[in-house]
Amino acid sequence: MRKIYHIVCRAEEIICGLGFIALVGLVFLSAILRMFRFSMAWNIDMAMLLLAWTAFLGADIAYRSGQLVGIDIVTRNLPKKLKAPVEILVLLFILAALGGIVYFGIRLAKSEWIRKYQSMPIPYSFVTVSIVFASASMVCSTIIKIVRRVTALFRPAGEPGRAA
């Protein structure tokens, strides 16, 4: 299971990187072609699609690796015995919020399946699915973080933890 998770995480990183390169390329190409009075309407819609996917996958990658800006003002000054339970509680709130995003995102994606891009024959719900996919991946990452903190909480003081 752990190997599958690492493969999915690596695939996310590759897709996000390639999507960002394609996004920059499309916007640059659009600007160059506009100088020559040539317009390609589909590349703006494709750039918006790529922007949504790269932004949300990038947020998931940053969340998983702990690179998101965090507010630890509450837990920073807490005693060690109280710090871990509060962190677990915060992660449970995050998990609930992400679960809501997944649930309502799926409902929104279903309702937007009919709506199409003006210049491309694909449903607009492909943008909404990026939120659902990234949030579902963040749910997995949050569960892993909760499990790690709970096991660390109940591990005897002298016993070393397993490397992440």
Q: In what range is the share of β-strand residues?
A: under 5%
Task: Tell me the number of structural domains.
Answer: 1
**Distance between the terminal alpha carbons, to the nearest Å?**
14 Å
Number of helices: 5
Low-confidence stretches: none
Biggest sheet architecture: none
Could you describe the 3D structure shown?
This protein has 164 residues and is an all-alpha fold. The chain has one domain (2-154). Helix content is 76%, strand content 0%. It is built from five helices and no strands. The protein has helices at 2-35, 41-64, 73-76, 80-111, 125-154. Helix 1 runs antiparallel to helix 2 (41-64) and helix 4 (80-111) runs antiparallel to helix 5 (125-154). The radius of gyration is 20 Å and the shape is elongated. The two termini are 14 Å apart. The relative contact order is 0.11.
Keywords:
164 residues, elongated, mainly alpha
Brief digest:
With 164 residues, this protein is an all-alpha fold. The chain has one domain. The protein is built from 5 helices and no strands.
